[in-house]
Amino acid sequence: PQSTHTKERKKERKKKERKKEERKKKRRNFSFPISNHPPSPIPFIIFYSAMAVSSHARLLSPTFDSRSSDPLLAVASAHRRNTYGRFAHEPKSVKGTVASHGLSSFPIFKFPPNFVRQLSNKARRNCSNIGVAQVVAASWSNNSSPSSSAAAAAASAVNTVDAAAAAAVPTASDAVALEGCVGNNESLKVEEKGLVDSRTSVFDSDGSVAIHAGERFGRGRADDAITTPVVNTSAYFFKKTADLIDFKEKRAVSFEYGRYGNPTTIVAEEKISALEGAESTLIVASGMCASTMMLLALVPAGGHIVTTTDCYRKTRIFIETMLPKMGITATTIDPADMNALEVALKENNVSLFFTESPTNPFLRCVDIKLVSEMCHRHGALVCIDGTFATPLNQKALALGADLILHSATKYIGGHNDVSPHVLAGCISGPLKLVSEIRNLHHVIGGALNPNAAYLIIRGMKTMHLRVQQQNSSGLKMARLLEAHPKIKCVYYPGLPSHPEHSLAKRQMTGFGGVVSFEVDGDLTTTAKFIDSLKIPYIAPSFGGCESIIDQPAIMDLNQTERLKYGIKDNLVRFSIGIEDFEDLKADILQALDAI
């Protein structure tokens, strides 16, 4: 019996091996059967269409190794040389065509080995992983009837790809134009680098300016990308010594070193300048970097500044501990006390008035127009930190301030991104003043990396949508809290009970998404209320898509500091995100019911 069993197992094993060999042989010798009704060419049409689309899409990339003698490559090569310099990739000439299924004139490009190896046999057989879904979707979107046949969809896909390929192949005159510029606009010179005035009269609204400023007009861009490319480099080369000399002697504009400027960060700067109506903007690695750089650059040793009682704690620490080391003194006044400001201006040689408006955390507002007039009469500069207001809700420069500063991490970036991705600050104003700060920045450092600049640019494109929602939710939340019996008081400039409500209505178009309030209870009761909330995160910062809440008595200050600046144990700062207001309302009410 054992011998019989062994023989059966051997037979079974040989049978399996034969089947395996037959399968391998079939795969090696696969071909279409010859018949009167050949298989549908649709899979192959889609497959080769997708290959062509993928290849054409990679023609303009300086790193993709596509090989063909297509006439587009000659122009694309020249375009790359102009755009990327003498080290641009030069493609070799290899050509192939498909002689079946109506694609005899369609170019095929050789894919890099890694790309091919990464496709499994199954993926290649099913025409997946190479953009087929996009081709099919495009073909179906071009069909008016939802019942179009698969053959019609495939034909539409091929027509779409053929049209795109035909449009991509330039004429002789186009080739000449491509060598000198991007697109058909002669002002978009490929080799033209540096500062370009991004302000334009085309857009009347802040929302459109935030989307297009710095990107749409007057800037050459690799491969005509819609979004701004991230330029990750620490240094920039010059083609010859004469170019470097021209740059150093200011006869040519270019980039030199990452700390002195980057094409991506300059787009972010131009966007902010356009929103603020400023001549120039400097964007740096954090809001505190912007504040300290401004103070160090504009206040001379032995100078005097005026600031307000209500402000960001770290700014106060810098003013109280670091500036005295350079002989700089400070007078601190109430944000609304104009008499105290007049006295400080008369009794001291004031170099600068620096405050927030609205302030942190009580959201006090400073009369920017009046303060600017008073300070300018005495030769003092005015710098406003408008982080809580955003460039959309308040135009400090138009009201008379010399400089406007923002922590771009907050509303401008708008996504609660954290270091090292988006932690940024910016300062805008006249070219002369910003240049002084920029020169110090070149020495001290604190440059924003281009990836963070890209995220700032991305965030600004939705800022007007986010801020509108936060303005609306903030006002409704402030009214809800003020009417609740378990809330002692609410600090929000949009409420008539706010001490500067009339002023806020004059100089602001919206009141922001931060609401500060005091719970009717002690430190422990307030902490219980916060712990009962389900939507907001317990965290510092504000201005992002997600709601954030914190208790300043626990988050920031010791008891001595709290008493000094009037911050009580039951104070809460609520940064409202862009969640649905009804969800936030229900969450707040259930948390108040829990105490």
From TrEMBL:
Q: What is its EC number?
A: 2.5.1.160
The answer, when asked if RNA-binding is one of the entry's keywords, is no
**Cellular component, GO annotation:** chloroplast
What the entry lists under Pfam families is as follows: Cys_Met_Meta_PP
Q: Which family does it belong to?
A: Belongs to the trans-sulfuration enzymes family.
Per its record, how is this protein called by name?
A: plant cystathionine gamma-synthase
Q: Which PANTHER family match?
A: CYSTATHIONINE GAMMA-SYNTHASE (PTHR43379), CYSTATHIONINE GAMMA-SYNTHASE 1, CHLOROPLASTIC-RELATED (PTHR43379:SF1)
Domain of life of the source:
Eukaryota
Q: Which GO terms describe its molecular function?
A: cystathionine gamma-synthase activity; pyridoxal phosphate binding
The regions listed as transmembrane in this protein's record are none
Question: What is the main EC category here?
Answer: transferase
| Species assigned in the record | Cucumis melo
Which range is the signal sequence, renumbered to this chain? none
Q: Please name the PROSITE patterns in this protein's record.
A: CYS_MET_METAB_PP
Q: Which GO terms describe its biological process?
A: methionine biosynthetic process; transsulfuration
